[in-house]
Fold:
Amino acid sequence: MGIQIRASYDSFRELRENGFYYVDKTGVIADYLENHSEKAVLFARPRRFGKTMTMTMFRDFLDIRQNSKNIFSGLAVMEHADVVREYMNQFPVVFLSLKEMFGHSFETVSKVFRSAVSNLCKQHMDLLESDDVDTADKELFDNIRFRRADTEDAIEILDLLSRMLRAHFKKPAFILVDEYDVPMAKALGKPHYDSVREMIERLLSYVCKTNENVKAVLLTGCLYTVK
Structure:
Protein backbone atom coordinates (compact mmCIF):
# COMPACT_ATOMS: atom_id res chain seq x y z
CA MET A 1 0.00 0.00 0.00
CA GLY A 2 1.31 3.47 -0.88
CA ILE A 3 1.67 6.38 1.50
CA GLN A 4 -1.70 7.77 2.58
CA ILE A 5 -1.72 11.56 2.53
CA ARG A 6 -4.64 13.45 3.99
CA ALA A 7 -4.97 17.22 3.65
CA SER A 8 -6.58 19.45 6.28
CA TYR A 9 -6.53 16.90 9.08
CA ASP A 10 -7.27 18.52 12.45
CA SER A 11 -7.15 15.57 14.83
CA PHE A 12 -3.71 14.23 15.73
CA ARG A 13 -5.14 11.04 17.22
CA GLU A 14 -7.29 10.26 14.20
CA LEU A 15 -4.41 10.89 11.83
CA ARG A 16 -2.10 8.55 13.75
CA GLU A 17 -4.68 5.83 14.32
CA ASN A 18 -5.60 5.81 10.62
CA GLY A 19 -2.00 5.55 9.47
CA PHE A 20 -1.84 8.74 7.43
CA TYR A 21 1.48 10.35 6.48
CA TYR A 22 2.74 12.61 9.24
CA VAL A 23 5.73 14.95 9.36
CA ASP A 24 6.92 14.61 12.94
CA LYS A 25 6.49 17.93 14.75
CA THR A 26 6.21 16.49 18.25
CA GLY A 27 9.57 18.00 19.15
CA VAL A 28 7.69 21.25 19.81
CA ILE A 29 6.03 19.55 22.80
CA ALA A 30 9.39 18.79 24.41
CA ASP A 31 10.74 22.21 23.50
CA TYR A 32 7.82 23.97 25.14
CA LEU A 33 7.69 21.82 28.27
CA GLU A 34 11.45 21.97 28.82
CA ASN A 35 12.24 25.56 27.90
CA HIS A 36 9.25 27.87 28.37
CA SER A 37 8.52 29.44 31.73
CA GLU A 38 5.73 31.78 30.57
CA LYS A 39 2.23 31.07 31.90
CA ALA A 40 0.66 31.81 28.51
CA VAL A 41 2.18 31.07 25.11
CA LEU A 42 0.81 31.99 21.68
CA PHE A 43 1.58 29.92 18.59
CA ALA A 44 0.95 32.51 15.87
CA ARG A 45 0.82 31.04 12.36
CA PRO A 46 -0.96 31.87 9.08
CA ARG A 47 -4.06 29.96 8.02
CA ARG A 48 -3.55 26.33 6.96
CA PHE A 49 -0.26 26.02 8.88
CA GLY A 50 -1.49 23.25 11.17
CA LYS A 51 -2.47 25.25 14.24
CA THR A 52 -5.34 22.98 15.22
CA MET A 53 -3.26 19.88 14.59
CA THR A 54 -0.63 21.29 16.95
CA MET A 55 -3.21 21.91 19.65
CA THR A 56 -4.76 18.45 19.40
CA MET A 57 -1.22 17.03 19.53
CA PHE A 58 -0.62 18.85 22.83
CA ARG A 59 -4.04 17.78 24.12
CA ASP A 60 -3.47 14.13 23.34
CA PHE A 61 -0.01 14.18 24.91
CA LEU A 62 -1.04 15.91 28.15
CA ASP A 63 -4.62 14.77 28.81
CA ILE A 64 -4.87 12.68 31.97
CA ARG A 65 -7.99 10.97 30.62
CA GLN A 66 -6.16 9.47 27.68
CA ASN A 67 -3.57 6.75 27.12
CA SER A 68 -1.49 8.10 24.26
CA LYS A 69 1.61 5.90 24.18
CA ASN A 70 0.57 4.15 20.97
CA ILE A 71 -0.10 7.30 18.94
CA PHE A 72 3.20 8.89 20.00
CA SER A 73 5.25 5.72 19.60
CA GLY A 74 8.35 6.29 17.47
CA LEU A 75 7.98 10.07 17.44
CA ALA A 76 10.56 12.63 18.55
CA VAL A 77 8.96 13.61 21.85
CA MET A 78 9.34 10.05 23.14
CA GLU A 79 13.11 10.51 23.13
CA HIS A 80 12.71 12.98 26.01
CA ALA A 81 12.26 10.57 28.90
CA ASP A 82 11.87 13.26 31.57
CA VAL A 83 9.12 15.02 29.61
CA VAL A 84 7.28 11.76 28.98
CA ARG A 85 7.49 10.73 32.62
CA GLU A 86 6.42 14.08 34.04
CA TYR A 87 3.79 15.20 31.52
CA MET A 88 2.45 12.44 29.28
CA ASN A 89 -1.22 11.92 30.22
CA GLN A 90 -0.54 13.46 33.62
CA PHE A 91 -2.65 16.65 33.60
CA PRO A 92 -6.29 17.62 33.07
CA VAL A 93 -6.82 19.54 29.83
CA VAL A 94 -9.47 21.99 28.63
CA PHE A 95 -9.59 22.38 24.84
CA LEU A 96 -11.73 25.19 23.42
CA SER A 97 -11.88 26.12 19.74
CA LEU A 98 -13.14 29.57 18.73
CA LYS A 99 -12.73 29.07 14.99
CA GLU A 100 -16.51 29.02 14.35
CA MET A 101 -17.36 31.85 16.73
CA PHE A 102 -18.54 34.70 14.54
CA GLY A 103 -21.74 36.34 13.34
CA HIS A 104 -23.35 39.51 11.99
CA SER A 105 -24.12 40.90 15.44
CA PHE A 106 -22.93 40.58 19.02
CA GLU A 107 -26.12 38.71 19.88
CA THR A 108 -25.30 36.08 17.25
CA VAL A 109 -21.70 35.77 18.40
CA SER A 110 -22.88 35.38 21.99
CA LYS A 111 -25.31 32.65 20.98
CA VAL A 112 -22.59 30.76 19.10
CA PHE A 113 -20.26 31.14 22.08
CA ARG A 114 -22.83 29.79 24.53
CA SER A 115 -23.35 26.83 22.22
CA ALA A 116 -19.60 26.17 22.05
CA VAL A 117 -19.12 26.23 25.82
CA SER A 118 -22.21 24.08 26.29
CA ASN A 119 -20.58 21.44 24.11
CA LEU A 120 -17.35 21.90 26.06
CA CYS A 121 -19.16 21.08 29.29
CA LYS A 122 -20.46 17.86 27.76
CA GLN A 123 -16.85 16.69 27.44
CA HIS A 124 -16.43 16.94 31.21
CA MET A 125 -19.67 15.40 32.48
CA ASP A 126 -17.84 13.14 34.93
CA LEU A 127 -17.05 16.18 37.07
CA LEU A 128 -20.69 16.26 38.14
CA GLU A 129 -20.15 12.91 39.87
CA SER A 130 -17.11 14.06 41.81
CA ASP A 131 -17.50 14.48 45.56
CA ASP A 132 -14.59 16.92 45.55
CA VAL A 133 -16.20 19.48 43.23
CA ASP A 134 -18.09 22.35 44.85
CA THR A 135 -21.88 22.20 44.57
CA ALA A 136 -22.15 25.80 43.40
CA ASP A 137 -19.64 25.08 40.62
CA LYS A 138 -21.72 22.10 39.54
CA GLU A 139 -24.81 24.31 39.39
CA LEU A 140 -23.07 26.91 37.21
CA PHE A 141 -21.67 24.09 35.06
CA ASP A 142 -25.20 22.77 34.48
CA ASN A 143 -26.55 26.23 33.70
CA ILE A 144 -23.87 26.65 31.03
CA ARG A 145 -24.39 23.11 29.73
CA PHE A 146 -28.13 23.60 29.31
CA ARG A 147 -27.58 27.12 27.90
CA ARG A 148 -29.51 28.69 30.77
CA ALA A 149 -26.53 30.90 31.63
CA ASP A 150 -26.23 34.34 30.12
CA THR A 151 -23.07 35.44 28.32
CA GLU A 152 -21.65 37.02 31.48
CA ASP A 153 -21.73 33.67 33.29
CA ALA A 154 -20.67 31.65 30.24
CA ILE A 155 -17.50 33.76 29.94
CA GLU A 156 -16.36 32.19 33.22
CA ILE A 157 -16.18 28.72 31.62
CA LEU A 158 -12.38 28.37 31.53
CA ASP A 159 -12.00 29.51 35.11
CA LEU A 160 -14.86 27.25 36.18
CA LEU A 161 -13.53 24.13 34.47
CA SER A 162 -9.98 24.67 35.68
CA ARG A 163 -11.29 24.99 39.25
CA MET A 164 -13.44 21.86 38.96
CA LEU A 165 -10.64 19.86 37.35
CA ARG A 166 -8.17 20.93 40.05
CA ALA A 167 -10.61 19.85 42.74
CA HIS A 168 -11.21 16.47 41.10
CA PHE A 169 -7.74 15.52 39.86
CA LYS A 170 -5.69 17.45 42.46
CA LYS A 171 -3.62 18.89 39.62
CA PRO A 172 -3.72 22.21 37.74
CA ALA A 173 -5.08 22.16 34.20
CA PHE A 174 -3.59 23.01 30.85
CA ILE A 175 -5.91 25.38 28.95
CA LEU A 176 -5.74 25.13 25.14
CA VAL A 177 -7.57 27.79 23.11
CA ASP A 178 -7.49 27.25 19.36
CA GLU A 179 -7.96 30.19 16.95
CA TYR A 180 -8.41 32.68 19.78
CA ASP A 181 -8.50 35.61 17.34
CA VAL A 182 -11.18 34.45 14.87
CA PRO A 183 -14.09 36.19 16.67
CA MET A 184 -12.23 39.51 16.63
CA ALA A 185 -10.93 39.13 13.08
CA LYS A 186 -14.44 38.39 11.80
CA ALA A 187 -15.89 41.38 13.68
CA LEU A 188 -13.18 43.83 12.60
CA GLY A 189 -14.71 46.99 11.15
CA LYS A 190 -18.21 46.10 12.34
CA PRO A 191 -20.26 47.77 15.08
CA HIS A 192 -19.96 44.83 17.47
CA TYR A 193 -16.14 44.58 17.32
CA ASP A 194 -15.51 46.24 20.70
CA SER A 195 -18.06 44.00 22.42
CA VAL A 196 -16.51 40.86 20.92
CA ARG A 197 -12.98 41.98 21.80
CA GLU A 198 -14.03 42.66 25.40
CA MET A 199 -15.69 39.24 25.65
CA ILE A 200 -12.55 37.41 24.46
CA GLU A 201 -10.34 39.56 26.66
CA ARG A 202 -12.39 38.65 29.73
CA LEU A 203 -12.58 34.98 28.76
CA LEU A 204 -8.80 34.75 28.61
CA SER A 205 -8.05 37.00 31.57
CA TYR A 206 -9.55 34.40 33.92
CA VAL A 207 -6.79 31.92 33.05
CA CYS A 208 -3.90 33.91 31.56
CA LYS A 209 -3.43 35.92 34.73
CA THR A 210 -2.60 34.48 38.15
CA ASN A 211 -4.72 31.37 38.64
CA GLU A 212 -3.54 28.53 40.88
CA ASN A 213 -5.83 26.09 39.07
CA VAL A 214 -4.03 26.61 35.75
CA LYS A 215 -0.71 25.00 34.85
CA ALA A 216 -0.33 26.88 31.55
CA VAL A 217 -2.32 28.39 28.69
CA LEU A 218 -1.56 27.64 25.04
CA LEU A 219 -3.17 29.77 22.33
CA THR A 220 -3.15 29.57 18.56
CA GLY A 221 -4.12 32.29 16.11
CA CYS A 222 -3.06 34.31 13.11
CA LEU A 223 -2.72 37.58 15.02
CA TYR A 224 -0.04 38.40 17.55
CA THR A 225 -1.16 39.86 20.86
CA VAL A 226 0.47 41.72 23.72
CA LYS A 227 0.91 40.10 27.12
